[in-house]
Amino acid sequence: MAKIAFILLCHKDPDAIIKQAQSLTAVGDYMSIHFDARANPAHFARIRKALADNPNVTFARKRVKCGWGEWSLVEATINAVKAAVDAFPRATHFYMLSGDCMAIKSAEYAHEFLDRRECDYIESFDYFQSDWIKTGWKEERLLYRHWFNERTQKRRFYWMFEAQKRLGLKRRIPEDLEIMIGSQWWCLRRRTIEWILDMIKRRADVMAFFRSTWIPDETFFQTLVRHLVPEHEIESRTLTFLMFSDYGMPVTFYNDHYDLLLSQDFLFARKVSADATELKRRLGVLYSSEGARFQISNEGRSLYTFLTEKGRIGRRFAPRFWETESSLGRERELLIIVCKKWHVAKRLLDRIRQMTNIPCIEYLFNEESCPLPDLGGIQSTMGKRHRHRRALMRMLYDYYETDRLIVCMDPANLDLLEDFGRDRSLTRMLEIECHFSDAYLIGHAMRVGLAGDRTPAETIQRLLPTVRNDIMHESDRIRDASFDNFLRMREVDPVDISARAVSEFLTIPPDKAREIVSLDHLYAD
What DSSP line would sit under 433-494, residue for residue? Predict the structure, then answer.
């Protein structure tokens, strides 16, 4: 009978990870955990302590700092796989999971399913001939070397790409490989895993190629399995059920999706909401049950498409989040930099980008030209951004695959600050108080339309006190709102005081915060 070693990549929610491991190993299966080295060390310590006495749980011997699109995700997977191979000699199958995945069948059903056919389950489509990549780069992912992360080191990423293009530094794909692409959520037999680990040892050229490939978690295992395993022993599909919304974002499942999930021809589902406690409880009980029967209708995707295109709320679905303006998520952190001088906030944001891995977005609710990813059109106009503010923010969290996000806002956006400040997510605000010279205020009056090139100097001088008082009033209103987790740094403060505020705002060591704020021209106009 099949015995599964689950390969779990995770970075948050230690209590959920502990429950997931206990549930999946209670019936005799195994789990190898890689907890992101970037994540909270206290969370990892809690997981290790809680699972220390569980003989069916092991941990990757080496933890790496993971970043979306990087080789680090493949490296973390390999480390967890190696630990599982060594620790669980009786495991017959190795199944990739994330912390957002839940079993939607019983263990009994899953084992019988895997015993029916001697094959590997992994999406693997021809990289160049298939249309698996719908938009964005295709050949560029492979033919150029990528050493920097596009999301955290955007300038370096594109500088290196453009330099290679100008110099004609295209590289060759290893001659005996046919590059394949597909979902990272696979289930492979032990023999296949051992072949892959052997090839990793033998083929330094293959490893070097994929280490500098962009988004290799969609190509590495997919390519190696096709290279090593006969075609008739590969089922090109994933056993993990996931759907995408009409905005291109993964659909999240909630408590009222229980019946729908059970009827799908899959063993697991992704993503299950952290707030769907009842769904998690029921699925956890289901996994260890015996004799459960499942009516497979597989109508999930078509039903979802029907309901969303009709624009109504289905009885088997939660309301669309952009209609209800639901919470950003209890586990998420929104860090807001509030500053009237946008160039000052942007300089600080650029320093934070350089020193941390937190995604940073500039004045998305104030500047139409603010760089944003394509989120299906919701980001296209300022009106849509304000109207669907929480939906937009949720989609940005999903796009960057993070629970922490930094944005900049103008002090005039008190309604936005109050809205996000009331959310169940943890919201921290850092107000930057700047000195406003007469020259700056005159420029500000012209930018907002209070004055123009032909406005007499006497009129401008009469306007200055009004403009200055208006800026002070905006700041006073923010302080009167008495937001929790509200911090301030002032232009007149010494570096040490500003560093303490930034340290608390970002929850980083004071030395690192001091390095961030130690910028001679931070407040320069």
Answer: E----HHHHHHHHHHTTS--TTS-HHHHHHHHHHHHHHHHHHHHHHHHTT-TTEEEEETTS-
Cα 376–Cα 377–Cα 379 angle in degrees, nearest 5: 110
Q: Which of 503, 501, 523, 498 is nearest to 513 (CA)?
A: 503
| Nearest Cα residue to 392 out of 415, 408, 409, 376 | 376
Rounded CA-CA distance 261/282 in Å is 12
**pLDDT tens figures, 421-431:** 888 889 999 99
pLDDT at 361: 94
8 Å CB contact between 308 and 141: no
CA gap 3, 291 in Å, rounded: 18
Q: Residue 519 has which token pair?
A: 């910028």
Residue 243: its H or E element? none
User: Which sign, positive or negative, has the C-alpha torsion 437, 438, 444, 448?
Assistant: positive
* Beta strand 240-241 pairing with 268-269: parallel
DSSP for residue 218? G
Q: What is the spatial distance between Cα 196 and Cα 202, in angstroms, rounded to a whole number?
A: 10
Q: Tokens in use for 130?
A: 């298939």
pLDDT computed for residue 321 by the predictor: 38
pLDDT tens digits, residue range 100-126? 899 999 999 999 999 999 999 999 999
Contact 317, 256 (CB under 8 A): yes
248-265: per-residue pLDDT in tens? Answer: 567 888 888 888 899 889
Q: Would you state the structure tokens that stand for residue 512, as one six-digit string?
A: 């690192």
**Coil/strand/helix, residue 426:** strand
Let me know: does 390 contact 328? Beta carbons within 8 Å.
Answer: yes
Q: Are strands 404-409 and 333-338 parallel, antiparallel or unpaired?
A: parallel
pLDDT tier, 299 (very low <50, low <70, confident <90, very high otherwise): low
- Give, as one character, the DSSP assignment of residue 320: P
Centroid of chain to Cα 397: 6
CA dist 6 and 76 (Å) reads 14
Nearest CA to 21 among 52, 64, 63, 61? Answer: 52
**Residue 239: φ, ψ to 5°:** -95, 10
- CA–CA separation, 398 and 351 (whole Å): 24
pTM score over 0.90: no
**Alpha-carbon span 376 to 311, nearest angstrom:** 16
Residue 160 has pLDDT above 60, yes or no: yes
The pLDDT-based confidence of 473 (bands split at 50, 70, 90) is confident
The beta strands (E) that lie in 129-223 are given as 180-181, 187-189
- Give the up-direction half-sphere exposure of residue 87: CA atoms within 13 A in the CB hemisphere: 24
Max distance between CA atoms of the chain, in angstroms, equals 89
Contact present, 126 and 236 (Cβ < 8 Å): no
